[in-house]
Amino acid sequence: MDIQVLSPERQPYFRTQCEEDNGGCSHLCLLSPREPFYTCACPTGVQLQDNGKTCKAGAEEVLLLARRTDLRRISLDTPDFTDIVLQVDDIRHAIAIDYDPLEGYVYWTDDEVRAIRRANLDGSGAQTLVNTEINDPDGIAVDWVARNLYWTDTGTDRIEVTRLNGTSRKILVSEDLDEPRAIVLHPVMGLMYWTDWGENPKIECANLDGQGRHVLVNTSLGWPNGLALDGQEGKLYWGDAKTDKIEVINVDGTKRRTLLEDKLPHIFGFTLLGDFIYWTDWQRRSIERVHKVKASRDVIIDQLPDLMGLKAVNVAKVVGTNPCADRNGGAATCASSHPARPSAAAPLAWSC
């Protein structure tokens, strides 16, 4: 219980800068003992614009997290890394997660209900896209340019694709897959990469239509659970839960090296945004990140159980195009059949 004494002597009135028009602040006006005796502030996870008065529309760099029974959103714009639970019902066992920056949908796989679902970034408007002939959908990737959705299934041992609304489903890869897991795309170059943690672990590459398949790495691998593509630098990163390493290789298969190999007991989710690689660790119950050049390491969240996949995105930024972006290439499902010509943004020869 609590008690307060109210009196003009205890709570005297005095005029403040926040009294008139909220100090000109769009959201919070907070009093301060220093000139100008107030500051403007924003809701958790949102940055203040350069004018010092107006908050941005929302968090721009965001970490989307799949836990077993919920989805969460973590702002990377501010250092508090507060996680917000998306209000989505009936999540039984979420595994992989991705985001479409064009329409603002979050996509995820659910292993228990054997389905692929999507919802708005705030959790509203949830809908099931695919729920037939799915066993263990471990990986998911959005082609935000051609408007397609790719996934891996360790039960059916297939890689499949649909339109983002769940129509025009097609099997792309169904041979020589044992335990396919992580999948990442480069829509501009027309390529996809995936990991397989089966008896003969490997990392493979193919065109987005499944053609031109090629093994990129098949030595000194254990359980390559996580995969992330740095499109600007032409590098592929992966996290291995058996060798306990984070490694990197050029997309042409050269210059493989270890980025981190300390205190990585069980990497699962894995993603990259800007200069940082983010991952979830089952044993440490943590979300961590490492600078891709300096190898400096930070803990984002710790002591959070049931961590699965994660995706770091800039929700305010859409980049890239390919021939499928123009009226879907005139087809029901359009996927680039060969890599695009390298540009200044892609200095290496992108091919499989």
Structure description:
This protein is mostly beta strands. The protein has no helices and 26 strands. The protein has strands at 28-31, 38-41, 61-67, 71-75, 83-85, 94-100, 105-110, 115-120, 127-130, 137-143, 148-153, 158-163, 170-173, 180-186, 191-196, 202-207, 214-217, 224-230, 235-240, 245-250, 257-260, 267-273, 276-281, 286-291, 297-301, 307-314. The strands form seven sheets. It has a four-stranded antiparallel β-sheet, with no helix packed on it. A four-stranded antiparallel β-sheet has the order 6-7-8-9, with no helix packed on it. The protein starts with 27 loop residues before the first strand and ends in a 38-residue tail after the last strand.
Question: Could you give a short description of this structure?
Answer:
This protein is mostly beta strands and about 350 residues long.
Specify the number of helices.
Answer: 0
- Beta strand %: 35-45%
Across the major sheet, the strand order is 5-4-3-26
The topology string of helices and strands comes to: EEEEEEEEEEEEEEEEEEEEEEEEEE
How many separate structural domains? 2
What gyration radius follows from the Cα positions, in whole Å?
Answer: 23 Å
Structural class comes to mainly beta
CATH-defined topology of the largest domain: Neuraminidase
Corresponding CATH architecture of the largest domain: 6 Propeller
The total beta strand count reads 26
Euclidean distance between termini CA atoms: 68 Å
The main pleated sheet reads as:
4 strands, antiparallel
Overall morphology: elongated
CATH level-4 homologous superfamily of the largest domain: TolB, C-terminal domain
Mean pLDDT: 91
The helical percent reads under 10%
Question: What is the CATH first-level class name of the largest domain?
Answer: Mainly Beta
Low-confidence stretches: 341-348
